[in-house]
Amino acid sequence: GAVVSQHPSRVICKSGTSVKIECRSLDFQATTMFWYRQFPKKSLMLMATSNEGSKATYEQGVEKDKFLINHASLTLSTLTVTSAHPEDSSFYICSARAGRQVTSGNTIYFGEGSWLTVV
Amino acid sequence: GNSVTQMEGPVTLSEEAFLTINCTYTATGYPSLFWYVQYPGEGLQLLLKATKADDKGSNKGFEATYRKETTSFHLEKGSVQVSDSAVYFCALSGVSSGSARQLTFGSGTQLTVLP
C-alpha cells in the first residue's frame, strides 16, 4: 500500500536554530501534502497545504515565515522551522494525497510523525 | 464550515468489553468519513473509511456506519483487546481551497483496555 515517510522521527535542536523535516511519498506521486501539528493530548491542527510547484497555503494563525514549506517534487515536501523556540516543540505530522483528481473518498496517507524538541 | 465532534475520553474498558466511540459531524455536501488510530509514540494510521451514506467501513474487528440522517459515524468493536489501546480520531474529508481535500479531525478519544 501507499507509504508516506517522515524524517527525522525525533530531533532536538537549540533555540534560535532551524530544523528541517522531510515528508516523502514512497510509492506514489503526491500532488498535495498537508502538514499538521499535534500538541500533547490534543487533536491535529492543520498548518498548511502544500501543492507541488506552487506556494503553500497556510491556515490562519500559522506564521509562514517561521514554518517554511517547500514542495519541490511530486514525492517530497519539507517543513523548516526557522529560529526555533521551545514553544515550537511539538509532534509534526505530514500527510499526502495521491493523484490530481478530486474524487470522493480519496484516501490521505499519513507519515509517522516527527517529534521536535527545542531546548 | 466542517466540524467533527467526538465523545470525550478517556475511555477505560476491560478486555473483551464492547466499545462504542461516538462521532457526529457537520459538513456541506457529501463528505467522506474516516477513523484514524494513533498508537503511543506513532503517527496516524487509517483504520477504516466510508464514502457515502449507509456505507459500513470495517477493519480489525472495528466497524462504523455512515449515517447521513443522524450525521454520525460511530466506531464500534464487539470485543476489545489490550492492543487496541490508542487514541482514535474521527475525521471527514471535504473540499476546501482549490482542489485539495483537507481532513477535519475530531479531538480524539483515548482508549485504554485493561487485561
Helix tally of chain B?
Answer: 0
Mean pLDDT of chain A: 86
Number of helices of chain A: 0
Q: Which two chains form the greatest contact, residue counts included?
A: A-B, 26 and 28 residues
Name the structural class of chain B. Answer: mainly beta
Descriptive report:
The complex is a heterodimer of chains A (119) and B (115). Chain A has 119 residues and is mainly beta. In chain A, strand 7 (67-73) and strand 8 (76-81) form a beta hairpin. Chain A is built from no helices and eleven strands. By secondary structure, chain B is mainly beta. In chain B, the strands form three sheets. In chain B, strands 2, 5, 6, 10, 11 and 12 form a six-stranded mixed beta sheet that branches. Chain B has a four-stranded antiparallel beta sheet with strand order 3-9-8-7, with no helix packed on it. Residues 96-100 of chain B have low confidence and may be disordered. The interface between A and B is medium-sized, with 26 and 28 residues.
What is shown here, in short?
The complex is a heterodimer of chains A (119) and B (115). With 119 residues, chain A is mostly beta strands. Chain A contains no helices and eleven strands.
List the helices and strands and how they pair.
The complex is a heterodimer of chains A (119) and B (115).
Chain A: E1 4-7, E2 10-13, E3 19-25, E4 30-38, E5 44-51, E6 57-58, E7 67-73, E8 76-81, E9 90-98, E10 108-110, E11 114-118
Parallel strand pairs in A: 2-11
Antiparallel strand pairs in A: 1-3, 3-8, 4-5, 4-9, 5-6, 7-8, 9-10, 9-11
Chain B: E1 3-6, E2 11-14, E3 19-21, E4 23-26, E5 32-38, E6 44-50, E7 56-59, E8 62-65, E9 75-77, E10 86-95, E11 101-105, E12 109-114
Parallel strand pairs in B: 2-12
Antiparallel strand pairs in B: 1-4, 3-9, 5-6, 5-10, 7-8, 8-9, 10-11, 10-12
Defining key terms:
heterodimer; A: 119 residues; mainly beta; seven-stranded mixed sheet; four-stranded antiparallel sheet; B: 115 residues; six-stranded mixed sheet; 12 strands; 53% strand
